[in-house]
Amino acid sequence: MTVPLAPPQTYSLDQYRQLEESAEDRHEYHDGQITPMTGGTLEHAKLISQLIFLFCLALQNTEFEVYGGDIRIWIPEQNRGLYPDLSIIAGEPLLTANRRDEVLNPCLVLEVLSSSTEAYDRGKKFRYYRSIPSLQDYLLVSQTEPLMEHYHRDEADRWILTPYSALEATLTLPTVNLEVALAQVYQGVTFPDNSL
User: Fold this and answer.
1) Where residue 160 sits, what CATH number does that domain have?
2) What are the E-state strand segments in 102-173?
3) Which domain does 52 fall in, by range?
4) Which residue ranges does the record assign to the Putative restriction endonuclease domain (predicted)?
5) Dihedral of CA 16/19/21/26: which sign?
6) What's the rounded Cα separation, in Å, for the pair 44 and 112?
7) Exposure check for the chain: N or C terminus, fewer CB within 10 A?
8) 58, 184 contact by CB (below 8 A)
């Protein structure tokens, strides 16, 4: 006799926010469903910390503020709450109902790719992010080779891809007036033997 699977529990947005305030781990919200965030590798953590450091250093005394993965991006059009690895906000953060953990207006979002999330980061998650009116730049960062893929929204609302695929390359982000060498981003990161 086969026991039918119970349908997944659906949470209201208020229930999710209450749970997230006291949760030890982070969870994304997907239109009533709660999805736990996966853990990362040493390379993943190192890349995020280096990117936060480099971006903070380059953007100090500007209108841009850099945030790590603890700030949730709320996307009302998609009814989703997502945690990017890094986000940048221009000017004052627009908050959801005066919450201090949920913002509406990133101009840049960055994800470090992993084998378990790469398809999602390139597909549905990018589609969700694209619906944010303030978002101008989406960065995907490989942890297995020196590769950063920069998607930029142009005046016609098209997303243009520029890949940077060598340690000698320099990433250019005109929205935040920033240039950073991939050699700095990947300094100290160990790649698998077959990546170079």
Assistant:
1) 3.90.1570.10
2) 102-103, 106-112, 137-141, 148-153, 159-164, 170-173
3) 40-185
4) 14-179
5) negative
6) 6
7) N
8) no
Asked, for residue 8, whether it belongs to a domain, the answer is no
What percent of the chain is modeled with pLDDT above 90? 70
* Phi-psi label, residue 32: left if phi above 0, alpha if psi -120 to 50, beta otherwise: left
Distance CA 168, CA 184 (A): 10
Residue 101 tokens, joined: 């953990």
Spatial distance between the Cα atoms of 53 and 194, rounded to a whole number of angstroms:
28
Q: Are strands 102-103 and 106-112 parallel, antiparallel or unpaired?
A: unpaired
What would the pLDDT profile of 12-34 be if each residue is shown by its tens digit? Answer: 888 888 888 888 888 888 988 88
For tokens 């891809």, the residue is 161
Q: Is residue 166 part of a domain?
A: yes
